[in-house]
Design a protein that fits this description.
Layout lengths: L1 E6 L5 H11 L7 H11 L14 H6 L6 E6 L4 E6 L7 H8 L4 E7 L6 H12 L5 E6 L8 H17 L4 E6 L23 H7 L12 E9 L8 E6 L4 E3 L3 E5 L3 E9 L8 E3 L3 E6 L10 E4 L6 E12 L5 E2 L3 E6 L2 E15 L4 E3 L4 E2 L4 E14 L10 E6 L2 E11 L6 H12 L7 H8 L4 E7 L5 H14 L4 E4 L8 H6 L2 H17 L3 E7 L3 H11 L4 E6 L11 E3 L5 H14 L9
Parallel strand pairs: 1-3, 1-4, 4-5, 5-6, 24-26, 24-27, 25-26, 27-28
Antiparallel strand pairs: 2-3, 7-8, 7-14, 8-13, 9-12, 10-11, 10-14, 11-13, 15-21, 15-23, 16-20, 17-18, 17-22, 18-19, 18-21, 22-23
């Protein structure tokens, strides 16, 4: 069982763990004597914390910097203990350690009492979904084993935990240095008749095994083999929860594509018919659907993950720069990595005082906030209370982890960033007195965007140029926008900001179609959500979709499908037939 031990700096976390290990005889043979001898040689008093603090700078400063992992065994079971740093500068390390825990021991110094970080740590446990919490009021020897001191701290902190929805299983007065109430009850505190620290740890309930939860498989990559007649497409990643067998039907989210497991693949291993949580593996599918890295594969018979673009979350911000409204960040959730924006700050909580502020446009360092995030595209997730592995996320800013949090729920929104942009544009746009109908009558055509899409290297650009030339020669007002080669997109294509590339294509398309032209553009690997963005930005004009090569859309009905571009003039005529039938080319006769 994974247990995290946290608390304010120097409240005795490492000492509690060291004492538990020593008194349960879980240390390697001779380790205790070795550390005591080293302390004697250096003329330093022996500390049980030295059994854990292996880093030199930790021992020099007397604080835990990284999340150390150690093991001990009670008569009941084996444990992995995570010693999380308590200093505010190392909260990032504490969160990464606590995220792996099933239960927590929170340490409070009897002499110092409840500190700001004690409250902050309690809230972070709540935010991470850790509901099994016990509180050790440590260093009771420094408070003369006073019952009144213990009860005062217990009552104050219990009231705090109740406000954030956490109920401590018990409060234990102890002295880790002296061994009081660690593995056995102490005669020095006869007024306490409750369990020892070890008794409480043994009473923690083990979480449901990950294999018993619904199947969740974040897609890391898709590998295609071509040599020696091997035509497998292997969907690779790590199973977070659940299990799967050959023949099971699966669904990929958020695309909604379905298939069945044809085989379970591994390197230099026997043939497998099943796989379960914790395995890094690959799958082939009976139907070759096209899925992208970042999708979440679920078993069709299980409760599916949720999908959405607007997420209500609890977030803890750790970056020196605040999290700003409408600034672009990157979210990493399960296998997905995509742009995300802070769209609304619901409340910002002062975790030390439990006061809230709902009139904020940004989240400051060390703030805990409930807020609404908007992702660039729909993202698949679970509520952290149901499946923590696919309900926790981190926020990246400038290639560094800047914050972390948990998904509370999906929220519906009537607008998004793109529709708001269009609304603002329309409010400010000074429309010409020349209406689209007047232009259509003059040009003998209706404006539209002709998007030629499909995988790369399928001849789309040659087709687009040939279509432009043919329409131009027949007197049409047409333009081929080679956006990939223009200054409009050079900076974003080089930096990999595809979302900005899509936005610019949509905005430029709006200008050309508003002027009454037939605009032709090509784009590779377009998906349903990017197409929706282009369509929204291009309004009130519309578009036609010509797909060359494999059709990888899951929700979009293309206007013309060209499987192989073997005859460009014939393909041009097919597109012209389409445009004529749909009244984009007026008075055009074959």
């Amino acid at each position: 069982m994974n247990i995290v031990v946290i608390g304010h700096v120097d409240h005795g976390k490492s000492t509690v763990i060291g004492r538990l290990m020593a008194d349960t005889h879980s240390l390697p043979e001779g380790k205790l004597e070795q550390v005591k001898a080293r302390c004697a040689r250096d003329a330093r008093p022996f500390e049980y914390a030295f059994l854990l603090d292996a880093l030199k700078d930790e021992q020099a400063q007397g604080i835990t910097i990284d999340s150390a992992r150690c093991f001990f065994r009670s008569a009941q079971r084996e444990y992995i203990i995570i010693d999380a740093p308590g200093h505010i500068e190392f909260l990032r390390n504490m969160i990464s350690g606590a995220a792996r825990a099933e239960a927590a021991l929170l340490i409070i110094d009897a002499k110092e009492g409840v500190q700001e970080n004690s409250r902050r740590h309690g809230y972070l446990l709540s935010m991470l979904g850790i509901r099994q919490v016990a509180v050790c009021v440590n260093k009771m020897d420094l408070a003369d084993y006073s019952q009144a001191v213990f009860e005062s701290i217990r009552d104050e902190y219990r009231a705090f935990l109740q406000q954030i929805g956490v109920e401590a299983l018990d409060f234990i007065p102890c002295s880790a240095r002296e061994g009081d109430n660690i593995v056995a009850n102490s005669d020095r505190m006869p007024w306490y008749r409750g369990p020892s620290t070890l008794d409480i740890v043994d009473s923690f309930a083990k979480e449901q095994d990950t294999i018993d939860k619904p199947f969740r498989f974040p897609v890391q990559d898709v590998y295609k083999f071509t040599e020696s007649g091997d035509d497998r497409r292997i969907v690779a990643g790590r199973i977070e929860t659940g299990s799967i067998n050959v023949g099971d039907e699966v669904i990929f989210l958020p695309s909604g594509k379905r298939s069945k497991i044809a085989s379970i693949e591994g390197f230099n291993v026997p043939v497998q018919t099943g796989a379960c949580a914790g395995q890094s593996t690959g799958f082939t599918l009976t139907e070759q659907v096209y899925v992208n890295p970042g999708e979440l594969m679920c078993k069709a018979s299980d409760t599916p993950a949720q999908t959405g673009t607007h997420l209500a979350v609890n977030i803890f911000w750790m970056n020196r720069q605040p999290m700003i409204y409408n600034k672009k960040y990157k979210i990493k959730l399960a296998g997905a990595r995509m742009p995300v924006w802070l769209r609304e700050v619901v409340t910002v909580l002062d975790a030390s005082e439990l006061t809230t502020n709902s009139n904020r446009q940004q989240i400051e360092r060390h703030d805990v906030a409930e807020c609404i995030l908007e992702t660039l595209k729909p993202i698949a997730f679970d509520l952290t209370t149901e499946i923590a592995q696919t309900g926790r996320f981190v926020i990246i800013d400038n290639y560094e982890i800047a914050g972390g949090g948990v998904v509370l729920k999906a929220v519906e929104s009537a607008t998004n960033r793109v529709t708001e942009r269009v609304q603002q544009r329309e409010q400010r746009w000074q429309r010409s007195t020349i209406t689209p109908q007047v232009r259509s009558t003059r040009y003998n055509q209706r404006s539209t965007l002709v998007l030629i899409c499909g995988p790369a290297n399928t001849g789309k650009e040659k087709l687009a140029k040939a279509l432009e030339e043919d329409l131009f020669q027949s007197g049409r007002y047409v333009y081929y926008l080679g956006l990939s080669n223009s200054s409009l997109s050079m900076d974003v294509t080089e930096s990999g900001e595809r979302d900005e590339y899509i936005r610019r294509l949509g905005e430029v398309s709006h200008l050309f179609t508003d002027a009454g032209l037939i605009l032709i553009a090509t784009i590779s690997d377009l998906d349903d959500y990017e197409l929706e963005t282009i369509n929204t930005l291009n309004q009130p004009s519309d578009f036609r979709i010509i797909n060359v090569g494999p059709n990888r859309f899951s929700r979009t009905q293309v206007d013309l499908q060209i499987d192989e571009l073997n005859d460009i003039p014939a393909a041009v005529q097919e597109i012209k037939k389409l445009l004529t039938a749909q009244r984009y080319l007026i008075e055009y006769y074959l």
